[in-house]
Amino acid sequence: MKADLNNRLSGTLAFYDLTRTNVVVPTPNPLLSLQTGEQRSRGVELSLAGEILPGWNIIAGYAYTDAEITKDTTFPVGNILSNVPKHSFNLWTTYEFQRGPLQGFGFGAGFFFVGDRQGDLTNTFELPSYFRTDAAIFYKRGQFRAALNFRNLFDVDYFESATGRFNVYPGDPFTVQGTISVSF
Question: pLDDT per residue over 147-159, tens digit each?
Fold first, then answer.
């Protein structure tokens, strides 16, 4: 469902129940993969996007996902799918000055939460939840845009994903990225 809350703000709500069959999954041998039974994901996603006030924009979302193995000959039925958190949340908001000497200058902040999730299909270890904060400052004038983006502002240690106990991928540390662009 999608609803326009007013002429500047809209929201979406989605319920889902997905079943995948004959899924290819990794095995302890990195040279082999295995076609396995059935996996099911059920959940709800809610998002909100738009302009709250002139120059103030928001994008926010929440997801609840229940993902498990429903049929299998290798992994126990009922095991939780790897890398799928039950709860996740994001919020990104920016403000850009609309007039005056600061017109075109803006800043933003983003907050991202990812809940605990299994690191493998055998559910032998768990990746911990994390909360990451990003920020940005930018300047726009006509077709010109310059920006500085700050990812993982507080240098939080976290894990993006895993493909097994020996293949765990850490998230990026504090990173600064500058961009300059011109639109034609």
Answer: 999 999 999 999 9
pTM score of the predicted model: 0.86
Closest CA to 133 of 113, 155, 153: 153
Q: What is the DSSP string of 32-78?
A: -EEEEEEEEEEEEEEEEEEEEETTEEEEEEEEEEEEEEEE-SSS-TT
Report, in angstroms and rounded to the nearest whole number, the Rg of the chain calculated over CA atoms. 21
Which helix (DSSP H) or strand (DSSP E) does residue 135 occupy? Answer: strand 130-141
Structural domains for the chain:
2-182 (2.40.170.20)
Q: What tokens does 55 get? A: 């120059």
Rounded distance between C-alpha atoms, residue 86 and residue 120, angstroms: 15
64 and 15 Cβ atoms separated by less than 8 Å: no
